[in-house]
Amino acid sequence: MNRKKVKFVVGGAVILAAVMALAISSLEETKAYYQTVPELRAMGARAEGRRIRVAGNVVPGTIVRHEEGVVTFDIDYEGEGLSVRYVGRAPLPDTLVDRAQAVAEGTLQRDGSFEATLVQAKCASKYEAAYEQGKTTLE
Amino acid sequence: MHHLGNFALMAILAFAAYSVVAALLGVWKKNARLIESAERALLACSGLSTVACFSLIALLLRSDFRFEYVASYSNRDLPFFYKVASLWAGNDGSLLFWAWLLLLFSGIVVLTNRTKNRELMPYVVATLGGVALFFTCLNFWICNPFEQLGVVTAAGAEVWAPADGRGLNPLLQHPIMAIHPPILYTGYVGFVIPFAFCIAALATGRLGAEWITSTRRWTLVSWAFLGTGLLLGGRWAYVELGWGGYWAWDPVENAALLPWLTATAYLHSVMIQERKGMLKVWNVSLIIITYLLCVFGTFLTRSGVVSSVHAFAESDFAKVFLIFIALAAGASAALVFHRLPALKSENELDSMVSRESGFLYNNLLFLVSCFAVLWGTMYPVLSEAIQGEKAMVGPAWFNRVNIPIGLALLALTGIGPLLAWRKSSLDSLRRNFTGPLVFAVVTGTALFALGARHGYALLCFVLSAFVIGTIVQEFHKGAKARRLHRGGSYPGALLDLTLVNTRRYGGYVVHFGIVLIFIGVAGSAFDTEKKADLVAGQSIEIRGYQVKFLGLDEGRTANYDWLSAKLEVTKNGKSIGTFAPEKHLYLASQQPTSEVRRYATFQEDLYMVFAGVTDDNKTTVQIFVKPLVRWVWLGAIVVFLGTVVTLVPAKRELKLARKVEAVKENLLLESKKKYDVA
């Protein structure tokens, strides 16, 4: 390897190291753990301060729109419930309706409720049930 | 099962398999007719694929709900345009569409290479046939869009059709969404052509720049479509999703960004191979990686592995896809390894301060960025496999890692083209960089004086000014020199200059567009937003805008119910107009959507969202002020136009081509004479 090549490789290594350092150091502050409601409950105090993404179905009739875009709703996952309080700035997705599959990202509070700064939701179509019934694909 | 589309798919399976076997057998037995028959088989596949695609479109247009795909993605009252667009709304249909584009492109390659690249073509045909075979297998057995619905009755299974379909996802019922997937797919699929030529080059050992130059158009067009598709996706998110942004580092967006990054690296590094015969291994690796990332991106987009709760590679679809990617990667790697001795560089790197090393650093940065984005996108899968806990990284992480890389690339955009090949002298550096540097410093100082304090944004504006300075200087220098030699007007000289070397000056135009996009993105550092619950007559004040809520309005169309919030906007006392952001409730799917309203200028966008009605009957309105967003879209258009310029054959090349033609004709005449004499 000639000297110029060595120089270039060293330059490349420095860039790589810098980006990796940046990637790893930013990781802890920005990462969020996927957790189901029962898993979250089981964690207890360990869940405090940890960014968590929790999924469940929106319990019908629990969506309440408060002042300034704060919205509360309950989600349910395999029989375990969780109260979510959305305090994020972005408008809530339109798909957040009764029985929608919702994902909330945020932190568990001391009182056992969940404060979310991000909510994603997927609609469960009302045709789904009727449709699934009739759906036996022909061979 | 018994549908024309299915028969077409079966026929493609047969013809594609034949084209692979016949092409390879043809090379082995040195049988030109066998190779030609392989090419024709591939052409037949193009036709058959068109039949399959149009038969699905026909089913969609006829609202034939006996077919599961039609019932799942359309409904009777869906407008014609969106019924056609339903073709790529679901997994099965979009794969059919993918395969159609692939075979269409393959057909064009076969037709345009009947007298060219004859040594490469058998392998090109075999590669394309192989890829088509895989996608058609997937389409036929795993994601068949022609499957029918049925019910089991006492008498056995019977055909069954619901009264109406479930409708197209309302978020996809937007003009951009109707063109975004085809444009993005053209980009994704297009890279199969340079990939196939690369494989052919490796297989034949013709490892010069021939395979690169023969596919230059395909590469550039695919690259432009991929980039345009990406930004159209961003534009759609911005105007349709209503969260006030255009890029969220979503896995689906990242999936398309990954091959774009490696393809951009490739576009730059091939110039070194063409000019100096260096980086041969690198270039074949880059195009192979780009293609594999295109396939991987399609897979990521269609399967939803990263965001879904299901474990990675659980479904048949995922397994088959991953096996295909692994096979393609393995075979390509084996070929590259086999040819390593022949891929030796013809030259050495001369200096750290040269065009070559500028390209090398450019490539390194693109690859590092690509790797970071890939790692972040796959983090949920990786963390689950390694730590046993599924975690994800959000947009903040992607921004932190990619902003510095992006800014370094922006700086190189200015520096690289001004460096000389081999070695730049100190004198030439001083001559080339003084002007742009002064312009950059002046811009930075002015912006700082005006109150811009955001570090990254300020740096971005300074670098943008620097790059614009270098581009203007290049055009100006060229035009001045040309006028000195040939006279004429200044604009004429500029045009002439560009036409003589479309590749170079088109490239500068592309760079200029990229700078505009950077400026637009940096503007987001100064975004602001306000949310309030209003009753009629109340208003929100934000950055000099006064937004007054006048009241609600409602109505119904065949497709949806709507509710709108009427807003009257004034800026610093001057009336701007009334806007009515809406909420729709789609009847077929019962899904609500928001329709934002925008007041867009080059300075900033006023972005108005009707966020909902509170339980005490107030209307929640959210207003965003987003500086410079428009520059992103403008930049995208400039990049596209610049790419078009690079595709125009340069005057020099035309002259050369004419000369070659003339020589050929002479030779022909001479040989004819000889023949006559004999």
How many domains of chain A, as an integer?
Answer: 2
Structural class of chain A: alpha+beta
Strand-pairing-aware structural class of chain B: alpha+beta
Total number of beta strands of chain B: 13
Low-confidence stretches of chain A: 125-139
Helix content of chain A: 25-40%
Strand order of the largest sheet of chain A: 2-4-5-7-6
Poorly predicted residue ranges of chain B: 308-313
Number of helices of chain A: 3
The largest interface is: A-B, 50 and 67 residues
* Helix run count of chain B: 21
Order of SSEs of chain A: HEHEEEEEEH
Features:
heterodimer; A: 139 residues; alpha+beta; OB fold (Dihydrolipoamide Acetyltransferase, E2P); 2 domains; 5-stranded mixed barrel; 3 helices; 7 strands; 30% helix; elongated; disordered C terminus; B: 678 residues; 5 domains; 4-stranded antiparallel beta sheet; 13 strands
Q: How would you portray this structure in words?
A:
The complex is a heterodimer of chains A (139) and B (678). Chain A has helices at 3-30, 37-43, 128-134, and strands at residues 31-36, 52-58, 64-65, 71-77, 80-86, 101-108, 114-122. Chain A is an alpha+beta fold and 139 residues long. Chain A folds into 2 domains: 1-30; 32-125, OB fold (Dihydrolipoamide Acetyltransferase, E2P) (Beta Barrel). In chain A, helix 2 links the parallel strand 1 (31-36) and strand 2. Chain A is elongated and about 70 Å long. Chain B has 5 domains: 1-148 and 159-169, no CATH class; 174-385, no CATH class; 402-522, no CATH class; 526-631, no CATH class; 648-678. Chain B contains 21 helices and 13 strands. Chain B has helices at 4-28, 32-61, 68-73, 80-85, 91-112, 121-142, 175-190, 192-204, 210-214, 216-241, 251-276, 280-303, 316-338, 355-387, 395-415, 426-449, 455-486, 490-500, 502-523, 629-647, 651-677; strands at residues 150-153, 156-159, 391-393, 528-534, 539-542, 545-556, 560-571, 574-579, 582-586, 592-595, 597-600, 604-613, 619-627. In chain B, the strands form 3 sheets. In chain B, strands 5, 6, 7, 8, 9 and 10 form a 6-stranded antiparallel sheet that branches. Chain B has a 4-stranded antiparallel sheet with strand order 4-13-12-11, with no helix packed on it. Chain B has a two-stranded antiparallel sheet with strand order 1-2. In chain B, strand 11 (597-600) and strand 12 (604-613) form a beta hairpin. The interface between A and B is large, with 50 and 67 residues. Strand 1 (31-36) of chain A pairs antiparallel with strand 3 of chain B.
